Every structure is written in structure tokens, then in C-alpha cells.
Amino acid sequence: MISILLATYNWPQALKLCLESLATQTDRHFEIIIADDGSTDSTKQVIEQFKASSSIAINHLWQEDLGFRKTIILNQAIAAAHGDYLVFLDGDCIVQPDFVARHRQLAQKGYLVTGSRVLLNEKLTQVLLTWSHWDFKRFSTSLLGERFSGGINKYWPLKMKFSNGPWRDYKKFVWRRIKGCNMACWKADAEAINGFDETMTGWGHEDADFVFRLQRHQIIRKSGSWATEVLHLFHKIHDQSNAAENARRVREKILAKAM
């Protein structure tokens, strides 16, 4: 079974769309573990309403809001997952109906997958947040127009999907295109490297650190582009005051391996 580890923090309107998009999956053999980094009760209400209307197994993990501590709550989610394969997703992302199915197709022992995203601009994001419920067919009717107007930054990856193959494999660690909002690995591999580095707090690069340590553990990185794209809702830039320090620490680990 697949466990979707869904990270969220105080954006219930976006989380509602994300959960509704998961409810439309063609592949239904998955559970949802919500990794909540200290949201208020409005997020809990969205989750409870979703539970009442959906047959999907869902577990809401919450920790006190003491600043950006995503690594800690994600490690709790890894421990709580019943699935042997983990798909990491953020609550500000909407998924296509074949999202779980595509990740399952790419799942392979000895590999991790880093997916990609389609960025939505502020105008389109605000429109979607007014919808009473998520409707992918409705969204898809205006894709080309949204691409020309800047509503989305990619068009063809939403229309064309490619299967698995060695062309997806990375030969070495590269920082590019690592997105914690869309990646996947085997639970046993995540546990073997002790999950995320909980000493990395504040926004930034905890995902790159996680991927680097998996690759150092002889796990091959595979691209999930042109298969698993998520729709990333527009939001203001997070507090990035810790990003430089987190990046320095990842580079330090990379340099230590090279020596």
C-alpha cells in the first residue's frame, strides 16, 4: 500500500482542494497521513469534514506551533505510515486523478522519485479557492489559455505522460528539481537513514538533505517529471532566514562524501 504523507500548515482552503483531488484518484489503494506543523482548529475542521465524506483512511498528526519544524512532524508521519511506499505531498498542491497511479508505476526497489510541479499564478489560485469543490475536468478545459496568459507555467507535462525507463535515472546527486512537495521513496529506505534531519529547522533544503542521504545510502534517484506533476498554488514567500544555513549544512555533507 502507498502512504501519502501530506504536510500542511494553516491554509485550510488549499488543504481542502488537495484532499478533494486525492478523493478523485483512479488508484484507490492508499492512505493519507497528515503531517500538521501546528495549524489551528480551522484545519482540523477541514480534515474532519473530509473524513466524514470519504472512505479513504486518514490520520491527522499534529504538533504545537513552535516555528517551522516540518522535519519533526514528517518523521512522525513516516513512523505512523502503514504503507511500504511513501509519497510526500504538500497541502498547497492539487494532484491529477492519476497521481497515485503514476507514482505506483514509477515505484521500484532501490529507487526514490523526485516529482515536479506546475506553478499557478496568484489570479488563478484565487479563482480555484472560490470553487465549492475540486473538479479536474473543469480545470483542464482552459489549460492552453491559462498557459498563454501566465496562469500556469507548464502545459505539455499535463497533457503528455511518459512511462518508466532508464532515461529517468540521475547518475549523481544534483540539487536541481528536488521538491519536497512531490517525492517518493520506500519506507524501509527512509527508516534506514533515520528520516529527515530534525536539527534542520526553518524553511529550506530539508528535502535536498533527505534526497542526498538516500543517494549516499545507494538509492538511485529517478525523475517523476512528465508523469506525476502537481498543481502548486501560489502563496507568498516563506520566511527564508534559515535557508542559507540549511543549504550550508547540506553542502558540507556533500563535500564530506567527496573527500
TrEMBL record:
The keyword Transferase applies. Residues 3-133 form the Glycosyltransferase 2-like domain. Residues 173-219 form the Galactosyltransferase C-terminal domain. One of its GO terms (molecular function) is transferase activity. It holds the Pfam family Glyco_transf_7C. Keywords: Transferase. It comes from the Bacteria. InterPro entries: Galactosyl_T_C, Glyco_trans_2-like, Glycosyltransf_2, Nucleotide-diphossugar_trans. This is Glycosyl transferase. It comes from Polynucleobacter campilacus.
